[in-house]
Amino acid sequence: MSESNGRRIGREFRTEELAREAGIPVRTLRFYREKRLLPPPRRDGRVVWYSEDHLARLRIIARLLERGHTLGGIAELLAAWEQGRDVAELLGLEGAIAAPWSAESPVPVTRAELRAAYPGQVDDDAVAAAQKLGYLRGEGEELTHVSRRLLDASAQLVASGVPLRDVLDTAVGVRASAEALAGQFVELISRHLFRDLASLTPAETARLTETVQRLREVARTVVDVEFGLAMDRRVQAELSEVLTHLAVRSGAP
């Protein structure tokens, strides 16, 4: 982490590193620069350095391409957004919006390791179900799991006596609930904070960047508290049913 003219510079990337992080060929990165879809990188002698804000811009471009926008249309959109504002402030807002919420890193895993983690429960159907959820990628014996923490958590559930198939079935519902929660937060923030981005002044853009960064922790807090309260209610209700059932069986008044 370093400072430049009072502005924070996060992690920096050489050309090949940025292309790898963004999942694009180096020639595509250079093409985007030629088309001015990316602002100039920082130069240090003959070496160019890209920032995390450049990476955020590349991820936004990728999302817009996925939605059917052309490169020409994306260039016009970005140019209109940058009109009359400081590019550093704009990129800071892009970075705050597009920065990943998840800190998960993919982990290589073989079928043999999966069979060891879930004894007697790993077959083609289970692997296919995990692939459909996006937990596993790849084919054959060499696979990649999206998250070490999810891999360990599911293994602990299975070790505790929960069948792997039930874990995967439950994950479908958890995924749907998580998508619904994310949708509610995105809709709320978009409706109230992102109504007219094109008219923001540089100062307003900077304030919005700080707000978006703060709201990340707010969103996590709300979800954590609500989940804890919901678990309290459900566990207490389940315990009450169990105790009532026991009392009936024992003939207690």
From TrEMBL:
Q: Which SMART domains match?
A: HTH_MERR
The record, for InterPro entries, names: DNA-bd_dom_put_sf, MerR-type_HTH_dom, MerR_fam
Does the keyword section mention Secreted?
no
Q: Where is the HTH merR-type domain?
A: 12-80
Q: Which organism is it from?
A: Streptacidiphilus monticola
Q: Which UniProt keywords apply?
A: DNA-binding
Q: Which Pfam families match?
A: MerR_1
SUPFAM superfamilies, A to Z: Putative DNA-binding domain
Q: Which domain of life is it from?
A: Bacteria
Recorded protein name is: MerR family transcriptional regulator
